[in-house]
Amino acid sequence: MIPVTSFAGKTVAVFGLGGSGLASCHALKAGGAEVVAGDDSADNVAKAAQAGFITADLRNVSWTNFSALILTPGAPLTHPAPHWSVLMARQAGIEVVGDIELFCRERRRHAPEAPFVAITGTNGKSTTTALIAHLMQVAGYDTQMGGNIGTAILSLEPPRMGRVHVVEMSSYQIDLAPSLDPSVGILLNVSEDHIDRHGTLENYAAVKARLVAGVQPQGTSIVGVDDGWCRNIADRLDQAGKRVVRISVKNPLPDGIYVERETIVQASGGARREIAKLGGIGSLRGMHNAQNAACAAACALATGIGTETLQSGLRSFPGLAHRMEQVGRRGNVLFVNDSKGTNADAAAHALSSFGDIFWIAGGKPKLGGITSLTEYFPRIRKAYLIGEAAQEFAGTLGTRVPHEISQTLDVAVASAARDAEASGLADPVVLLSPACASFDQYRNFEIRGTAFRDLVTAMPGVKPVV
């Protein structure tokens, strides 16, 4: 845990008592603050009270003694309207911040030179965060990974030299961290997302840009420049005098890092050198993962990691569970769990990464279905449709893709495995990438992915991928 000493002797309101909120309460108390905690969930309030915190309905207390409101990222700061607790804080004239901001203040107070890597982007944040943490561990760092990827940042060990914090951040978390100042900041990409919480795409992009704009004076801003929003952000950072490393997987760059024929290349002043190869690394398959790997490579170089360690770390990266996870092989059939592919855009990454696919798709459908995936249909040898979306997806596939309505995951896995083995293809892939939410049959995508993994590994003759 990281004790938050910046509010020692003061009283702080905390709204939102999920994982990060409760961690904030513990960290503030450990640092000498008094906490008054609230939540709209009676269960969360009860857990906080059980943990020994003062709890209250923050609508009905005096805010005059509060020094700050620590807000959960799940509560809106601006759009579609500020949360009622934000309005009360503003009326009382106190600041509204989140747990990332508390971490930044503690780092500045106690270990301002300790390495701190912050990662954001519309897509690829979690994989890039996990990959960088893995590279840091391979390089011998005491590595702390958290933030939006799972572990609340204040539940990690405190910053110090020799210890690196690798932290994934959503736009909601950045919004609540006004003094965010990583030593390395990474912005992967920007595409339309979370407009309901930021009002416009311009506002959303501006929030994302703050992560790389706030990098410390001697630090490094790493920006993927394959979309217009990020290209403009990189140019503005340049003009502001920041050290910027541009990343592309679409075009060679005169200065920056790019991917060409499965090779990560560093260019400077027209000179180029190959720094790592991605060919044959199953956990980093596909163009989206090439971008993740290139950004991670730029981070490794910025923190002094050599190319041999970088290559070793890339090759040994196991990947994230439920994201293009290679579950096993039976004969020449590869089984891939991409349960995190909960919409068409996410499924497109998986479909673009393989040639002969026996595709398991379906679940609770999202707006637009799979109509945007038609360019990948020639890669699909057969589809196995499950859940509420089965009939809708069958209609979209029509006569272009052979398919069957399997309804349930167990039937789909058995049928896909049978057909892949009988296909005679050199490298058939049974791919679970549902392009749907899981909620019609599973509580979340993790449980759905685990069910797929269990079904595959229970089949006779399945061997782990090495």
From TrEMBL:
Residues binding ATP: 121-127
Signal peptide coordinates: none
Limits of the Mur ligase central domain: 119-300
EC number: 6.3.2.9
GO BP term, example: regulation of cell shape
Coiled-coil residue windows: none
Catalyses which reaction(s): UDP-N-acetyl-alpha-D-muramoyl-L-alanine + D-glutamate + ATP = UDP-N-acetyl-alpha-D-muramoyl-L-alanyl-D-glutamate + ADP + phosphate + H(+)
Keyword Ligase: yes
Source organism of the structure: Bradyrhizobium lablabi
Gene Ontology CC terms, in alphabetical order: cytoplasm
UniProt name for this protein: UDP-N-acetylmuramoylalanine--D-glutamate ligase
Pathway: Cell wall biogenesis; peptidoglycan biosynthesis
Role summary: Cell wall formation. Catalyzes the addition of glutamate to the nucleotide precursor UDP-N-acetylmuramoyl-L-alanine (UMA).
One Pfam entry name: Mur_ligase_M
PROSITE patterns recorded: FOLYLPOLYGLU_SYNT_1 (PS01011)
Phylogenetic lineage: Bacteria, Pseudomonadati, Pseudomonadota, Alphaproteobacteria, Hyphomicrobiales
Keywords assigned: ATP-binding, Cell cycle, Cell division, Cell shape, Cell wall biogenesis/degradation, Cytoplasm, Ligase, Nucleotide-binding, Peptidoglycan synthesis
NCBIfam families assigned to the protein according to its UniProt record, in alphabetical order: murD (TIGR01087)
Primary location recorded for the protein, binned into one broad class: cytoplasm
